[in-house]
Design goal:
This protein is of the alpha+beta class and about 325 residues long. Helix content is about 30%, strand content about 20%. Among the domains are: about 110 residues, Uridine Diphospho-n-acetylenolpyruvylglucosamine Reductase, domain 3; about 100 residues, Enolase-like, domain 1, CATH 3.30.390.50. β6 and β7 form a beta hairpin. The longest helix has 18 residues.
């Protein structure tokens, strides 16, 4: 682990200006991912900027959207009564993440910025295009059991590791960013993370002098009737092999709106929009759920060790929709 300086920022302007002037500096809140990366020499930052004093807190319903401050801790959001009642998929995704100890430390903003758990990225003995652009991607022919079948490229098939981001992707969430000039911009969660393409080292659209202020989730019918299912090797403290966040607006036995997002299978939180379209106007039946699930994996490109995910993700989607309607 390299030596670094430490600064505690008292304002957003102070924090973002430090990063504007020193682009290798990093923001730290809970530090549950960043410190691991630094200890393993995967990331090296000469300066850490502590943003825990910034006033980006609060969990409230405002102007038809749930606003979650970026500095809120995962456990506080997951256990919040408003979130539990009106945005259940968000609560479920958070409470199925990590461990209680980590959820008590990790911030919402930091969770959206977490990096992949691909073993080749996390082990500096191997080349990795995400860690060292142009060095290669041994996962293509190597141990790819936990890696992506959707959204990959010849440069990278590392899976996005998030749970929360999957639920937010399903519910049309927006990420609120602020830069060193104090200017804010809203970015749909679906556009916040980017596909690897030929530049897998770039994982989000966030600029060097920007930080996450809040997450906004529309208070829709499909948000109120939503559900998150996570399939993993262990019952707790494990990343998803496959996950699905679903939401439905059903009236008179007919689906008026459907939302399906997937985790554990994409290089970013994956929205299955073709599957959603197939459900609109249909009855909420197992037959229709299966047809939508099949559409969700069209175009999948599994590798040798993760072909099982094609079937597993379909079963997970059907299970999530059935549990939602039970």
């Amino acid at each position: 682990m390299n030596n670094f300086s430490y600064t505690q920022a008292s304002t957003a302007k102070e924090a973002t200006n430090i990063r504007k002037d020193a682009k290798d500096a990093a923001f730290i809140a809970g530090g549950t991912t960043l410190l691991d990366l630094m200890k393993a020499d995967i990331e090296q930052h000469p300066q850490l900027v502590d943003i825990n004093m910034l006033p980006f807190r609060g969990i409230e319903l405002n102007d038809g959207s749930l606003r979650i401050g970026a500095m809120e801790r995962m456990s506080d959001v997951g256990e919040n009564a408003l979130v539990l009642q009106q945005f259940p998929a968000v609560s479920e995704a958070l409470l199925l993440s990590a461990s209680p100890q980590l959820r008590n430390m990790a911030s919402i903003g930091g969770n959206l910025m977490q990096r992949t758990r691909c073993g080749y990225f996390r082990d500096t003995a191997f080349p990795c295009n995400k860690r060292n652009p142009g060095s290669g991607c041994p996962a293509q022919q190597g141990d790819n059991r936990n890696l992506a079948i959707l959204g990959g490229s010849q440069a990278c098939i590392a899976t996005n590791a998030g749970d929360l981001a999957v639920a937010l992707a399903a519910l049309d969430a927006v990420v609120l960013l602020e830069n060193a000039k104090g200017k804010q911009r809203r970015v749909p969660l679906l556009e916040f993370h980017v596909l690897p393409g030929t530049t897998p080292q770039r994982e989000t659209i966030i600029e060097a002098d920007e930080l996450i202020v809040a997450v906004l989730v529309p208070a829709t019918a499909q948000a109120r009737k939503s559900h998150y299912v996570k399939v993993r090797d262990r019952a707790s403290y494990a990343f998803a092999l496959v996950s699905a966040a679903v939401g439905l607006d059903v009236q008179g036995g007919q689906i008026r709106a459907a939302r399906i997002a997937l985790g554990g299978v994409g290089t970013k939180p994956w929205r299955a929009q073709e599957a959603e379209k197939l459900l609109v106007g249909k009855a909420a039946t197992e037959e229709n759920f299966r047809a939508a699930a099949a559409a969700a994996v069209r175009g999948a490109q599994p590798r040798e060790h993760n072909r099982f995910k094609v079937e597993m993700v379909q079963k997970t989607i059907v299970r999530a929709l059935q549990e939602l309607m039970a």
